[in-house]
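Translate sequence into structure tokens.
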Amino acid sequence: MNQTIRLDDGSEVPLKQLLDQALQLHQAGALDEAKPIYERVLRAVPGQFHALHFLGLVHHQQGGHERAEKLILQALASAPGDADALCNLGAVYNAMQRSVEAAERFQAALAIEPALPAALNGLGSARFLQGRLGEAQAQFEQALRASPGYPEAGTNLSMVLQAQGDLEAAERAVRDTLQAAPGHPGCLAQLGSVLAAKGDRQQAVSTYQASLKTAPDNADTWYNLGLLLDEARMAGEALSCYGRALQIEPLHGGAISAALFLRRALFDWDGAERLSQQYFKALEQDVGGLTPFSLTLEHSTAQQQKHCAELWARQFSRIEKLPPAEKSGKNPPDDQRLTLAYVSADFYQHPTAYLMAGLFAAHDRSKFRLLAYSNGPDDNSAIRRRVVDAFDEFVDVSGWTPVKIAQRIRDDRVDILVDLKGYTLDAMSEVFAYRPAPLQLSFLGYPGTMGAEFMDYLVADEFVIPAGSESAYSEKIIRLPNSYQVNDRDRETATGTPGRSEFGLPDQGMVYCCFNASQKITRQTFARWVAILDAVPDSVLWLLDPDPRWPAKDRLRSAAKDLGLAPERLIFAKKAEQKQYLATYRHADLFLDTLPYNAHTTASDALWMGCPVLTLPGDTFASRVAGSILTAAELPELIMSSEQEYRDMAIHLGQDMEDLADLKKKLARKRETCALFDTGKFTRDFEKALLDISSQRDL
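Result follows.
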């Protein structure tokens, strides 16, 4: 350390002085200023331990974990017993999701310094990543005993308690830490997370904001604040938070995904297209946190969607599978039925419940024992009661930890476990990662592959996944003989329907409609619709109002005006209760589908109510669902093969009332006999598929 280093101007500076200068900048958070000084030292003294170690730490702090690993390994080659360097290498491995290697480095550091708080805390983080929550908790508690008030350990202890479902203890832990370290931004951010989990959104927002006053450059905190505001339908404020996160970390997977989805929902196509480019750039670089569902709304390939799903599924690779169930279970010894269980948050007034209720009721109880695990709300609705009554046992697992849910499923000796959520809101993917059942299926809720080794089968049909496209799916494909989508013949519809004027519709003229969610309507789709309306005088387009609090309607009307269409030809319907919503289709003449994400439940709703659906399929699962539905409804003439054909058919049906009337008459006839609405036939086909795969696995 008595060496001197010659600078570019010819002067010489003591090595220690340069390192001290770099370290001061480093500790002050001026990483970009510290980095070149460490590099200058290494040019003069290759292999200098402190420069290698701390330069590696800078790269780690800036997200360059691979470079950090190489540098710290080089440093440790000359000083293998340095506990701090071992800890920092462990932190790098934790950041890279290499928790086994991380644990080894922290254990090596503890062999040198048994009470080193950073090593105890880091080992706890490694165990947390591995899903070994009890061990992680013990390590964090030991770190706090070694260093009372240690903010990182207190924050992590709160996180692991939250992961175990003990929100009260999680809040106490982080508040205790804040007493020792007032205003610590990491502790405040964790407190915000706990408060959000407890449903105290207002306090959570305030706490995140307090954290950001101290640490305004934390992209994750901006993102989490944005999610809360998004959930509260405060779209502008949420987008501002996502934007701040992306200024700090331009390829923040979560912020890109959430902002992209929201901008599409707001019809902000310019902003969405810029974010879409960022999304694909991040995908090419294997960035974590990109939500697969957001990609299904983009013009993407099935292979790209598979790659994204595989990246998302990596977060579950840390989870250790549960041991097999004991031979003695809840089934009586003489009960030879298969235990079939469904997992979802949507057993309430939700499209999934309305589609599935008939199937649940129609299952053959001589062959299947039927269970449900619900982490969604109990809205005390008629559909909720109907669904609950259909099961042998309905288990409300709201607030349970994933491992507790998985253990219950295993203890119930479930043979076939069906995921009705996939990668959508409130999914329980982590439960499936524990492998609580020998056969696990993805069905209905998510239109694509989950890219996860813990999902064995994906339920589809010949149209949504054509023969030869299996390589884009990680699961084995169960192809049902008709549509993969089940429908309920016993759905309720309001008997009376208000007149057209009460919906803002003109008394005369063609009514095109699309009641798909707003995020499915792309610039290209809307331009096709405007061209159709231009060619059919007095026609209108009836859409769903995304949210009266949003500027979405005004933005779409402005887009119509820019394309030369009178804005008043766009009519917006308010969201309505299910029976009234179905009845509105009585005033619709033709449903115009979207691409690349089709109408799914809305397509079968429209057909059930006698409104034809015109679709243009793509190459992905999500873009082929309406075609599958029309095939099962025996209306293949409404599946178009090109944009021009789509426009021409929509214009023809808008101008030729006789052909449109004939089409509606055919639909009315087919509704009574087609496979799409034959709940009993679907149930038999589905059960046959389940029995076939269970016999292959010898359950």
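Note: Residues 1 and 16 are 6 Å apart (CA to CA).
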